[in-house]
């Protein structure tokens, strides 16, 4: 069975991207990493991608007058390469309804909370302040609402007594690195299932 052509969108160092690249390099994984794209030319993850033999492309959002013109340039690059699924991995831009609509059902994101709890920012501080005993991460389909799409998979991490947000973030990140490749494989399976029916 042919593998889905994967693009990974990043804004920084891309540790989750690294895990996805490693998974996609394995025989039998249902996606092949075709492109790593960043909205920042300085993103350290671009060099990581190049070193892994994957095309790395920067389309700086500051070069465009508005969000949609930036996204149209991004969409063109993705379409030109025959991309079939997109994984957001620390891509620090809220996508417009136009882009989300164009890639609906083929666009996933990882978020550092157990959605639907704590969409948006400062998830670890919010979980600690609420007195939660566990936190975690979720991979979900991207929809127009921020962090509102259906969850594909989740992983949990305990909140320990005296945890700081940074300590909790590190514990959750370790779970993210395990979860994202597994959830990407499941997303590929669901896309194939949809196309087969």
Keywords:
197 residues; alpha/beta; Rossmann fold; seven-stranded mixed sheet; 6 helices; globular
Explain what you see.
The chain is an alpha/beta fold and 197 residues long. It has a single domain, classed as Rossmann fold. The chain contains 6 helices and 7 strands. Strands 3-2-1-4-5-6-7 form a 7-stranded mixed sheet, covered by helices on one side. Strand 2, helix 2 and strand 3 form a beta-alpha-beta unit. Helix 1 packs parallel to helix 6 and helix 5 crosses helix 6. The longest helix has 32 residues. It is globular and about 50 Å long. The protein starts with a strand and ends with a helix.
At CATH's second level, what is the architecture?
Answer: 3-Layer(aba) Sandwich
Q: Quaternary state, please? A: single chain
What is the CATH domain class? Alpha Beta
Structural class: alpha/beta
Count of helical regions? 6
Largest sheet, in brief, is:
7 strands, mixed
H-E string:
EHEHEHEHEHEEH
Helix content: 25-40%
Query: Into which percentage range does the β-strand content fall?
Result: 15-25%
Q: Outline, from the CA principal axes?
A: globular
- Mean of residue pLDDT? 97
Could you tell me the radius of gyration in angstroms? 16 Å
Measured distance between first and last alpha carbons:
16 Å
- Which superfamily, in CATH terms, is the homologous superfamily? Formyl transferase, N-terminal domain
Could you please say which CATH topology applies here?
Rossmann fold
Number of domains: 1
Task: Report the uncertain regions.
Answer: none
Biggest sheet strand order reads 3-2-1-4-5-6-7
Number of beta strands: 7
């Amino acid at each position: 069975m042919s593998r889905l052509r994967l693009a990974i969108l990043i804004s920084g160092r891309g540790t989750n991207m690294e895990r996805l690249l490693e998974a996609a390099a394995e025989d039998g994984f249902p996606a092949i990493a075709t492109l790593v794209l960043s909205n920042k030319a300085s993103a350290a993850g671009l060099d990581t991608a190049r070193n892994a033999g994957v095309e790395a492309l920067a389309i700086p959002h500051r070069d465009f007058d508005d969000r949609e013109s930036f996204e149209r340039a991004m969409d063109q690059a993705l379409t030109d390469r025959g991309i079939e699924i997109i994984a957001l991995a620390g891509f620090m831009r809220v996508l417009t309804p136009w882009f989300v609509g164009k890639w609906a059902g083929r666009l996933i994101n990882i978020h550092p909370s157990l959605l639907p709890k704590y969409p948006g920012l400062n998830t670890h501080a919010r979980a600690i302040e609420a007195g939660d005993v566990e936190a975690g991460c979720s991979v979900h389909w991207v929809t127009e609402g921020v962090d509102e799409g259906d969850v594909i998979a989740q992983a949990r991490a305990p909140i320990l007594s005296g945890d700081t947000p940074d300590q909790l973030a590190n514990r959750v990140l370790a779970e993210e690195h395990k979860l994202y490749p597994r959830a990407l494989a499941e997303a590929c399976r669901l896309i194939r299932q949809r196309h087969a029916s």
